[in-house]
Amino acid sequence: MIGAILVGLIVGAIATKIMGAQSNWVLNIILGMAGSFVGRFIFGIIGFHAVSGLAGLIVSVIGACICIAIARKIN
């Protein structure tokens, strides 16, 4: 559980830097975890299954960037 929170924080922080968004550490954790789910789901549909390691981190960051883009469109 602690590992998932730390990875979520890192993924969320990377995604907010890439997308130029403003966020705090709690939102980064939530964004990172949601991004991990979204990224794995989308890449799983196209047949790319990245569960851990660098590929999993990249997929999670892409998913978090997608979440930020969707949130911007909604607002």
Structural notes for this entry:
- The protein has 75 residues and is mainly α.
- The chain has one domain.
- It is 81% helix and 0% strand.
- Helix 1 crosses helix 3 and helix 2 packs across helix 3.
- The longest helix is centred in the last third of the chain and has 22 residues.
- The N and C termini lie far apart (31 Å).
- Mean pLDDT, to the nearest integer, reads 91
Alpha-beta content class = mainly alpha
- The helix count comes to 3
Please indicate the count of domains. 1
Unreliable runs: none
Helix content: over 70%
Biggest beta sheet attributes? none
Order of helices and strands: HHH
The gist of it:
With 75 residues, the chain is mainly alpha-helical. 81% of the residues lie in helices and 0% in strands.
Topology record:
Elements: H1 2-19, H2 25-45, H3 53-74
Features:
75 residues, 3 helices, mainly alpha
